[in-house]
Amino acid sequence: MLRAALNRLLGMAIVMALVVTIVFIIVRVTPGDPAAVMLGPDATAADIASLRQRLGLDASIPEQFVTYLGGLLRGDLGTSIFLNIPVAQALWLRAEPTFFLTIFSLLIATAIALPVGVLSAYWRGTLFDQAATTLAMLAASIPSFWLGLIFMQVFAVQLGWFNTSGFGGPGASFAERMHHLVLPAFTLGLISSALITRFTRAAMLDVLNDDYVRTARSKGMGEWRVVVRHAFKNALIPILTVVGLTAALLISGAIVTETVFGLPGVGSLIVSAVLRRDYPVIQGALLVVAGLYVLVNFIIDMLYLLVDPRVRY
Amino acid sequence: MAATAGAGMAREPNLLMRIASRPTALIGLIIVTIVIVLSVLAPLIAPYAPGQIAVRFRLQGPSLAHLMGTDELGRDVFSRVLHSGRTSLGVGFAVVIFASLIGVTLGLVAGFFRRFDAPVSRLIDAMMAFPDILLAIALVAALGPSATNVVIALGIVYAPRLARVVRASTLVIRELPYVEAARALGVPTPVILVRHVLRNVTSPLLVQATFIFANAILAEAGLSFLGVGISPDIPTWGTMISVGRQFLDQAPWIMWFPGSAIILTVLSLQLLGDGLRDFLDPRLAKDV
Predict the structure, then answer these.
(1) Is 0.80 surpassed by the pTM of this model?
(2) If chain B, 288 residues long, is cut into consecutive pieces of 10 residues, what is the mean pLDDT of each piece?
(3) Considering the domain boundaries, does residue A221 fall inside one?
(4) What phi-psi label fits residue B251: left (phi over 0), alpha (psi between -120 and 50 degrees) or beta?
(5) Architecture per CATH, B24-285
(6) Facing residue for B228 by CB, picked from A30, A253, A271
(7) B56: number of Cβ within 10 Å
(8) Do residue A143 and residue B218 have CB atoms under 8 angstroms apart?
């Protein structure tokens, strides 16, 4: 068990090292001088030279990589060129809306997907199953920004139940701030529920015909207990995997949704960084999000090890 | 063995006949075909030029003269939706081709040559740690916003998925007797890779390519909507929605119709992909 965990940890470290290298390369593939691109066409040669020095771009690529790695090991993600604060601080200041948006979206997605997926598998081939499968596919086909705008038009503009954008201003209470997240969370949650529904259905179909389910039935156990206690419990591992991965992917969905609803989160920070060519912020955000994804994967693998003794890495 | 021989003697249904046997896949294929034909023939079908401005007809609702209404400059939304389809589908198709070039190469190398398997597989894992849109945004930011760079960025984003599928199939095919026989006969490795391995990974590749086509259309629309993709001067479904959001309460049709075009296209590609997977790659059919 310990050996397997260490193996997995080593695998994670290798992937993370590659992630760091990829992030470093992405900024360096900019055609021409990144400092000139960042400062725009009006920049003077002196400005460009100064920024090159500040970002360490005047050193050789291997030297830049070593400096970059050294910074990362000290927890230094660089400094935002436009905000003029450390990237880690910029991300932290914008973390609250993104964190709660991700949590609420995941709750909404699982609250819809788990019962629908289980019932869809249980009633396989019925009208309910066909409707659920079709709706899941439809949800996966809708662009999140479009659904967000439709929700905004109906629930904010026409019905006036919610604000069209923002996070409630500086003095807003926690409840007010969360109220601003209702529409974005439903937008992301509904779309994310599609993937979880399909995986839940597939995982349940796998176990519903297993021997132990048949045995439980033949012992006269109630149908509800058979489905929940025996089948669902055993289908939980693949379902947990997809829920975990959806959580990591929601951060990506948040980029677009936050922009639609004007939420001051990490997603909108990334978009504004791209529009301003603030490479340190883009670089830092990429690293943090990919790191979270690798970490979620690792945690899921560890849960596998704990739950299923047959799993070996 | 007998079953194989029997199957060999019977006339095997071709791909189109197999698709026709599944109603949902057939519906998907028909809609995709209609969308492609309408987009390709946009210059002939569209009643107006996509950039034709007529300010006195601005923000008009759907009517016989303007089937999908007009936008803030009086341009015909129907004509723009048709022309935007050319860009959106074109980008999606180019992404599939570019991603396939990278993905197939990486997958074949990792699956066929044992010594490259671990490093290439770790690279694929690392690439897949980045969420689609985020990596695409970062790459477009680095390369500069243009249609070509959007294709390159999305191609790089989706290539690892194809690489993973091709690698898995190659690992199995590599050990099959006919590949061993070809090796023993001294057939050069590139010939084995192309003639024996690549030909046999086309089924899972085709299934994945269909889904990547759908995802690329969604991702391109997302990038255009955020203003970090294709230039706003070129009509795409994403840029149309981005502009339409400013007139949400006055003229919601500006964003309704391009959004519906995206949903219809992506949904039909997913239906087609699901159908293809069911009979081309039945091992995966139950997974999702």
Answers:
(1) yes
(2) 44 71 86 94 91 86 91 92 93 95 94 90 88 87 87 94 91 87 88 87 88 93 88 87 88 93 94 82 52
(3) yes
(4) beta
(5) Orthogonal Bundle (1.10)
(6) A271
(7) 7
(8) yes
